[in-house]
Amino acid sequence: MPDQNIKMKGKERRTNPVSSFLLLTGQSVKMSLENVMANKMRSFLTMLGIMIGVASVIGLITIVSGATSSIMSDMMGLGANSLQLSAQGTDIHPGLLEDDMDQLRKIKGVTAVSPSVSTTTDTVFNGDIAKDTLVNGTDPIYFKSAQVELLSGRIFGDSDSDGNTNVAVVDKTFVQKALSGHGKIGTKFLLDGYEYQLIGIMKPKDSMTQDTWNNTGTVYVPYKNVLRMMNKYYVSGADIYYDSSINASVIEQQVRNRLDNIFSHKKGAYTIFNMQSLQEMMQQTEQTLSLMLGGIASIALLVGGIGIMNMMLVSVTERTREIGLRKALGAEPSRIQLQFLSESVILSLTGGAIGIVIGLLIAFIGSKALKTAFQISYPAILIGAGFSIAVGIIFGWMPARRASRLNPIDALRSE
Description:
By secondary structure, this protein is α+β, with helices and mostly antiparallel strands. It is built from 13 helices and ten strands. The chain has a six-stranded mixed barrel with strand order 2-3-8-5-7-6. Helix 2 crosses helix 11 (333-370), helix 3 (40-79) packs antiparallel against helix 12 (378-404) and helix 9 (275-318) runs antiparallel to helix 11 (333-370).
């Protein structure tokens, strides 16, 4: 029985390695926090470089991501799975005729062709004249593909597109500027001398690519009405929509072949913009900008890391006697090293956390100023947090190692 009691007591004295490590780490962190709080101003100035670096990385990348997202959204609004055709024409064939658009509609994979033509004219309402109103001529397909949202009213349909029905969908700017705020559906006004009836008001877009040069606003009417205003029989552009299951380059080549026949293979008669190619180009540009801006902002993180290393080296010098005393009392070098390393990590993580908050605030203010969507970039936050941890470990390792290697006798004699 006595032997069994001795064995049980021996087992009780054994410590769990994991628990021992956690206890050691907790004590080191506690001591590190006490030292950081004891030197508040120096700790703040040390963290400043990390704060600036992380805030720069997150702020710049988030702003670029939000701006690109807004532009991409606008591109999608112009029509996903579409080709933008601009027809300069030739002397004999100055633009796209109805028969030409019918030929384009017959291409396998093409789901719709929406003609577009625009001009500027004067608007007259209650005797007041609003000059240089932008008038876009289109058809119902445009409103459906561009996912236009209305504040009130409706869009014009196929029955309104015969060229003899004077209906208009307008934006909010037109209501405020040309109609003096009279946005009631059914309001009538003169456009190029013709009386038009207001049937719909578009919801304003919070976007970077919307037209801002025209102070009078924009009016959308059936494209045949605009041809009548301009005394033309052809359109100068069209949106070509195709089946998403078909490769865009295949459709584009077929459209080019058909247009070459229409314009007798005359160079410069037309231009095609592939929306899918533009979207891919924008994504590549975003990635390049993010990497470039992230690299520039990382310089501030490097400077912050050097600041932490400098502060820790000074701390080691100031606390040489303390380190010597602790080692003389039996503290292991690994424990000394862990304390200084944890102090460095605490400084960098605290600076990184504050930098993340400041960076998101900068991105929010920047997105409001640029009128783009505020999109939190989680990869940027992970990069900032990862950099903070890496800076704390890398730049704190050398001072911590130096502290752990101090000779206790020399350290005690230092003062």
